[in-house]
């Protein structure tokens, strides 16, 4: 069993583990398993070894929250000596001369960045494949690891690294975490500060881990808020549960609804008030999310110098649609949705829903398929996720059970109002204590 990030850092700080050995063991696991899992676009073997050696002699080693912890970083952020690929052959390939804010915070905390994880082109879809490979679900490799942080979720679920960085614009942390059976948190808007906000403020950096404790530790580093690393047992909360698929009211697979029922049972037994209640999901909210889903990647492709002619055909279609829908991105639509969410969370502290609205798609070369064939399953599986990006509220995926037929994890989503990250992680820790899940494959 791979040690948790908390265990590794504690042992390194105490002089019981050597960061170089920890990194070598992670690289060995990657070399053995990643040809099947496909989690990494780039493994930084030599550079990671050198960075681990530097951590080992740091004078502040005994103070580092992530001392010697191997970390995977989603391939969307600047890392010295690497280019951010964004799952594409159409973007700039110039290596970064300095770390971006995410890599800089990880290194300052003592982490060792072992590699960059696979994403779909421009992070548009919830399946992470590119011409170099397919990120597969370590629990059942015939299924996708999800996306767009699919490589990060797969790396954690396979035990290649204990924690990984992800980003979430419309569910891109929570969806792959739910598919792979790990913990994934999308923090609220502005919790992890960065120079620019992607997708019109909907995208957020966050942690993927096998335990709530590890997720809290990584969040505390990404947010530069040490107090978030400490988990606390929440007092009695007013919890709403809902299995109604937003907007479409489509039928929900029975195992996904059963996971919500099980979570409700566990939370009720833990002393919380649990009722059935569903927010009102107006059509204007769906339209606002779709407009941003199209326009966000189009804006990024133009700003970052992507060659439209070299984008994958499905991506070219998406970007062209985004140029048309950009004029529909209005702050008013977000304000209208916030008025609904604020009223709902005035009566409830937490909302529990399924993390996925359908079973995960199969693992295949989705990047070769035409846009409609990819967009439809993407929109369907993500139905519970995106509206919380629009609101800017924290939301977390946590494992609960398994599908009876093929053993895939079944997970729930916990949502709280602004500032509720610690509450969600505390509830997830209580669920873990009452209902432990397998940490890795």
TrEMBL record:
SUPFAM superfamilies: Amidase signature (AS) enzymes
Keywords assigned: Hydrolase
Keyword rRNA-binding among UniProt keywords: no
Gene3D superfamilies: Amidase signature (AS) domain
Superkingdom per UniProt: Bacteria
InterPro entries in UniProt: Amidase, Amidase_dom, AS_sf
E.C. designation(s): 3.5.1.4
UniProt domain Amidase: residue ranges: 21-425
Ranges in a coiled coil: none
MF terms in GO: amidase activity
Annotated protein name in UniProt: Amidase
Pfam families: Amidase
Homology family: Belongs to the amidase family.
């Amino acid at each position: 069993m791979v040690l948790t990030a908390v265990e590794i850092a504690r042992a390194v700080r105490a002089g019981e583990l050597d960061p170089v050995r920890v990194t070598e063991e992670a690289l060995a696991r990657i070399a053995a398993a990643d040809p099947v899992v496909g989690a990494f676009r780039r493994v930084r073997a030599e550079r990671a070894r050198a960075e681990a050696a530097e951590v080992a002699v740091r004078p502040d080693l005994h103070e580092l929250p992530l001392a010697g912890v191997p970390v995977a970083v989603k391939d969307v952020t600047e890392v010295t000596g690497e280019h951010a690929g964004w799952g594409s052959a159409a973007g700039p390939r110039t290596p970064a001369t300095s770390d971006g804010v995410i890599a800089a915070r990880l290194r300052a905390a003592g982490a060792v960045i072992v590699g960059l994880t696979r994403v779909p082109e421009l992070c548009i879809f919830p399946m992470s494949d590119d011409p170099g490979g397919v990120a597969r679900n370590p629990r059942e490799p015939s299924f996708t690891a999800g996306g767009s942080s699919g490589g990060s979720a797969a790396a954690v679920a396979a035990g290649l690294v204990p924690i990984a960085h992800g980003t979430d614009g419309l569910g891109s942390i929570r969806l792959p975490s739910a598919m792979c059976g790990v913990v994934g948190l999308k923090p609220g808007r502005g919790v992890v500060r960065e120079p620019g906000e992607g997708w019109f403020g909907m995208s957020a950096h966050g942690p993927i881990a096998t335990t709530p404790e590890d997720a809290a530790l990584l969040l505390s580093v990404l947010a530069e808020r040490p107090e978030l690393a400490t988990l606390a047992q929440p007092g009695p909360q007013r919890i709403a549960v809902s299995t109604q698929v937003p907007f479409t009211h489509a039928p929900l697979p029975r195992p996904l609804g059963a996971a919500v029922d099980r979570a409700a049972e566990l939370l009720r037994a833990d002393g919380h008030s649990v009722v059935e209640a569903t927010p009102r999901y107006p059509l204007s909210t769906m339209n606002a999310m779709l407009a941003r889903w199209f326009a966000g990647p189009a804006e990024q492709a133009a700003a970052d110098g992507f060659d439209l002619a070299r984008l994958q055909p499905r991506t070219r279609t998406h970007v062209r649609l985004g140029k048309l829908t950009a004029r529909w991105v209005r702050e008013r639509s977000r304000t209208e949705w916030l008025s609904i969410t604020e009223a709902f969370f005035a009566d409830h502290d937490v909302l529990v829903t399924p993390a996925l609205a359908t079973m995960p798609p199969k693992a295949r070369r989705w990047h070769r398929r035409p846009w409609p064939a990819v967009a439809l399953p993407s929109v369907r599986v993500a139905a519970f996720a995106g509206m919380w990006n629009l609101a800017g509220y924290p939301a977390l995926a946590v494992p609960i059970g398994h599908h009876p037929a093929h053993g895939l994890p079944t997970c729930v989503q916990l949502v709280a109002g602004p500032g509720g990250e610690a509450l969600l992680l505390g509830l997830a820790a209580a669920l873990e204590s009452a209902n432990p899940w397998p940490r890795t494959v």
